[in-house]
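Quick one: structure for this chain?
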Amino acid sequence: MVGEAASTWIPTAAGIQRRPRWFQLVRDPGVIFGVVVFLIVTVCAIAAPVLAPHDPAKQSLSNRLKPPTALGGPEGYVLGTDNLGRDVLSRLIYGSRISLIVALVTVVGAGTFGSILGAIAGYYGGWVDNVIMRIVDAWLAFPFLLLAIALAAALGAGLDKLTLALVLSRWVIFCRTARAEALAIREREFVQAAHALGARNRRIILRHVLPNMLPPLFAIATLEMATVVVSEASLSFLGLGVQGTMPTWGGMLADGRQYVREAWWLTTFAGLAITILVLGFNLLGNALAEYFDPRLRARR
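Got it. Here's what it folds into:
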């Protein structure tokens, strides 16, 4: 009995090790869903020529407005055809390229520009902070979508100009967040130590301030990707996005709005693609925001 009792291990509070916070993050259903959606869209964007069953720009008027194969449509057109006989599935796959490229380039461009300005404003303070933040306040006075429409119309059509319009519209979000982080980081001991050792302000900003504000900015960037996807689809729907034969999800919605009653699949599948991608980015961004912000975790 004594031997059995000695060999039996009874867990105690001291013997239980707490799992790290990142373990809870990777097991979050929202994170899993967001990562899976992002990977699927990325694979579709990269391998579009291999995955697409048809040429997305090839027209076949004899096959126009055909329903999906499961609903009696022609073989090989899983999601049906549009008003010009083009394969909806192929256009969805190729359209993921535009959504992903615009989202990534816009977030990187706006994040870099806005974060640097925000770090400068928060670190130097004084008149530098006042000038930058008054520009940000004036920029935020305009509704985002109206500002994006105005910039896209002024710059003209094209993928590069559309991305530039979105960058000019969204940099202020990163600037405000970076400023708030820089105000807190500049008072920390390692920054004061760098000052005492004679480090230049530019070196302190690049080596100490910017790297330490990356985690919350990364969470903001994930949420911003969802906003950019919707914005790109909205501008493409209005005819201010990518022109030509390149398919976009917003353009597919615009093409199918006249045939909602007789060909519901034209808008349904494009709308679902936008919804799922935006939902994935939002769930992933919210989880990252809670992971990096203890105050948000405490509210759950």
